[in-house]
Structures are given as C-alpha cells and as structure tokens.
Amino acid sequence: MAIAPVIVGTAAALGMGGLHWGRAVLAALVALLLQIGVNYANDYSDGIRGTDEDRVGPLRLVGSGVAKPHEVKMAAFGSLGLAMVAGLVLVILSQQWTLLLVGAGAVLAAWGYTGGKKPYGYLGLGDVFVFVFFGPVATLGTTFTQVGAVDTTAVVGSISTGLIAVALLMANNVRDIPTDAQVGKMTLAVRLGDRNARISYVVMLALSMALTLCLVPDNPWMLLMLLQAPFILLPSWIMLKGRTREALIPVLQQTGMLNLGFSLLFAAAVLLNTL
Questions:
Q1: Transmembrane region positions (predicted)?
Q2: Which of 99, 144, 186, 200 has the smallest number of Cβ neighbours within 10 A?
C-alpha cells in the first residue's frame, strides 16, 4: 500500500518529463516508514485498549503479550521520526516547502488513527484518512516533488490507488466487525453492516479500474489496466461469499498485491505512451 502510490506518482512524473530517481526512492522510504509507524501505533493503541484480545488474523505484539506496550510505542515513534527525517531531505531537495505541513499532517494522522483520547479510527473516519494519505497525498506528493506540478494522469492514478487502499482496510475491518463493535470501535464497516461493507469492497475495486479508462483518449495504453480485471474477481468472490472471519484473511494479501499490480500496469501504460 505504501509503494503503489509512489510508483503511480513517479510514473506520472515520467509522463510529464521530470523523473528523478533519487526523490522517488526518498518518497518510497517516507511512505514505507509511515506505514510501519502507523502499524506499530495501531498495535500499541489497540493493545492497551483491549481491542485485540480476541483477534483473528496476523499476530499483534501488544495484544498477544509478545512485546511490552512501551516497546511498541517507541518503535512507532522511531519509525515516524525516521519518516520525518527522510521527508525533510526530500523537501530540501525538491524545494517544495509547503509539503512540510503535509508531512506533519501525515505523522499526526498516523498516530491519531487509533491513538489519543478520540482516535478517528474508532469514529468511522479511518477510511477517509487512508484514502487521502495512501491516495492523493502519497501519489501527488511524489509527483510534485519531482516536477513541481501534477496533471490529470496523476490525479486519476491517485484516486484509483487510494480506493484500493481503502478496499484493503474495508476487508480488514469486515473481518473484525464482531470484536470492533463489542469494544466500541465504530469503523465504517461496523456502521455499514456486514453485507453492505462487503459490497463496498467490490465497488471500490471496480471503480479503481474504471477510472483509469477515462485516460484512454489521451493514452490508449491505459487499456492495459483491463488486465487486472481477473485478479479483482477472486478477492471479490471471497469477500461476498466468505462466511467465516478466517476466510477473509487471504483477501488482505490479495488486495495488497492487486494494488502493486495496478501501479506497475499504470507505470507501464505511461512509459509506453512516452516512447
């Protein structure tokens, strides 16, 4: 989820004639460290609240007792701190100083997802923030640090990859509806209900592909995005038909790979159009 928007944003920069590999690598580093940081922060905050006591899926450090809460908290702060350092270097190289505010917002959002007195992840706003930061912010920020501007290709790509990121979060939260509702974690999946949340997952994946086809008049190679259609079917089928919480676990990996595949196809379409 962290790498995909950087690939899309870098591809857009290539299409605009301003690719900078060094800045692309720094953007990827920032995105990865932020994702690692938010995962540690989520592990810590959910763990001390007792949200992960009856968890189905990958092991959680605090909830399982494998690590002490303060150790996981320090790991979160360390990752977010390194992300800030890498982000500062990227801003200095690109001279896009307004992105300092965006970076600060990303760090605050990473902690505020499940941390603090009123975590927005418990209010059903996690999906909005994931879309914003794993979609437009990461993608357009990557493009902007390389060419100092964005175009329609970058915007469409950012929305599409953001939708896939939200779909992954939705799959995760559908799996956790019973335990989240019990502890008062009112995610969007809890608010929508099991059936509607599953349908929203399929809609988001379909829309992510359909939006890119709007770019076909200017770039016929965007028809390559249709190649991902078969790979949308399997996780969508599992989401609609899987009845146990355990059955939904493979969907997380499948959706992550789908986003990576999307970004590579998108980059290929832009590259071929520039040749």
A1: 20-41, 74-93, 99-116, 128-149, 155-174, 195-215, 221-240, 247-272
A2: 186
